Amino acid sequence: MTNPADQQVAHWHGFTQMADHDPLVIESGEGCWLTTKDGQKLFDGVSSLWCNVHGHRHAKLDSAIQNQLNRVAHVTTLGMSCQTTDDLAKRLTELTPGDLGHVFFSSDGSSAVEAALKMSFQYWQQLETPRPNKTRFLALGSAYHGDTTGAVSLGGIKYFHQLFAPILFSPLRGPIPCSYRVPHEINETPLEHYTNEIRVLLEEHHDELAAIVMEPLVQGAAGMITHPPGLLRNIRELCDRYEVLLICDEVATGFGRTGKMFACEHESVTPDILCLGKGLTGGYLPMAATVARPHIFNAFLAPATDSRQFFHGHTFGGNPLAAAAAMASLDLLTKPSFLETVATKGEYLRNRISGILSDHPHVGDIRGRCMMVGIELVADRSSRQPFSSKFQLGRAVCRRTVQNGVWIRPLGDVIILMPPLIATESELDMLATVVAESINAETMVLVEQATEISSDA
User: Quick check: 436 and 353 in contact, CB under 8 A?
Assistant: First the structure.
């Protein structure tokens, strides 16, 4: 029987329980701020899912799209191209680390990862000396790389992925290299421990592994899990030693989020394949890129009759309007001292939050890199025991921040802050204050409820 309410919900939202969805409809945006259709102003504390790095209605990005629209809105990249898209590809090869030199465009981060998986798989099959057994992938614990089938297969978060197990491939699963929840029994540093775990896996399985796929430095959707410094560099060296490709998913960490253009730069690492998205167009239009090194690209070069071309493509891959926005965004990101200023802001935000919450009995960890911040809420700080999921504490905190003018979205009981890179110190102060007050209020509610239940018993 049809529920009458069903007829009123035309827009089905992703990762959202529509049965208790409280609509929040945005009318306009300006800078770091959104205005709802009811007139409420909200600070965009997660950059509209981590992508609007320059905020909203930036004059340079608006103008770039309008100028491109006067020329052409879309042409396919299957057999032709647009100069704007070609220029963007060249620009990305100049900005990405090392000799990453060949750019394949798609529409979103999941698709960029999907392309990387197929690219690396096909690479090993058609080398001059093929390695046909190298068909598997190693992914880290609690990995998240998107929602297309291949990307979901890499995922290690049961909440997101377990339902689809029958239609997925099985990766080799690595450790969760978390600097907060380090195993108690180890007699070595976290860096040594996680490096050794990955080394053992490569020693045993390198003959069947096409690539390791990982988010460098910070695993975003896993709850801002932050790796020990040096882990990325060690994994790069292990991949070289055991002849396994390294795919770095910088969909979330790229374009200034960690204080450098790309997170890989912090440890002077060049992956074999780099996946980009989200901030590529400043959050204006859907676009992603899979960037490969020459040895990958060259394995696909042959006479057409050999059928060695990359068997993958997207209708809107390389869209000129998106490319124009991306070029404008890169102009802003590469302005003198821009990224240095972002790094300073990131330190300011983290220090501000730590100054308010570092002694809070239910704040277990404040982590991340630069303008990527995760605040993990725990029931018991000393044991790091989480709250029961029945309390939905993270959601409660974020509902309260909306009431007080800040839009953020949690990952379980990890409160995520990823404001636009253009946020001012006063805006970051306001963000930190509202979030801290909301955490204080909602944890106090839980404590009071627990006290009442204990008294009644």
Answer: yes
Residues of the chain with CATH 3.90.1150.10: 4-57+337-456
Number of helices (H), then strands (E), in the chain: 13, 16
At 451 the pLDDT is 65
The phi and psi torsions of 261 (rounded to 5 degrees) equal: -55, -45
pLDDT given for residue 31 in this prediction: 98
Is residue 429 packed enough to be buried (19+ CB in 10 Å), middle (13-18) or exposed (0-12)? middle
Q: What is the CA radius of gyration of the chain?
A: 23
Residue 187 has pLDDT above 70, yes or no: yes
From the list 335, 422, 325, the residue with the least C-alpha distance to 63 is 325
| Domain 4-57+337-456, CATH among 3.40.630.30, 2.70.50.60, 3.20.20.70, 3.90.1150.10 | 3.90.1150.10
pTM over 0.85: yes
Fold of 71-333: Aspartate Aminotransferase; domain 2 (3.40.640)
Task: Identify the CA nearest to 106 among candidates 137, 83, 85, 80.
Answer: 85
Residue predicted with more confidence, 457 or 263: 263
Helix (H, G, I), strand (E, B) or coil at 261: coil
* Residues 402-428: tens digit of each pLDDT: 999 999 999 999 999 999 999 999 999
Q: Give bridge partners of residue 275 from the DSSP assignment.
A: 249, 290
Percent of the chain with pLDDT over 90: 91
Residues of the chain with CATH 3.40.640.10: 71-333
Give 228's Cβ-side CA count (13 Å radius): 18
d(CA 145, CA 147): 7
Helix residue ranges per DSSP H, 139-282: 149-154, 158-161, 190-205, 231-242
User: What would the pLDDT profile of 222-263 be if each residue is shown by its tens digit?
Assistant: 999 999 999 999 999 999 999 999 999 999 999 999 999 999
Phi, psi of 212, deg, nearest 5: -95, 135
Cβ atoms of 364 and 180 within 8 Å: the answer is yes
Q: What pLDDT was estimated at residue 1?
A: 41
Question: Per the structure block, which two tokens stand in for 152?
Answer: 């979901």
Say how far apart CA 57 and CA 278 lie, in whole Å.
17
Q: Are 74 and 111 in contact (CB under 8 A)?
A: no
pLDDT at 99: 98
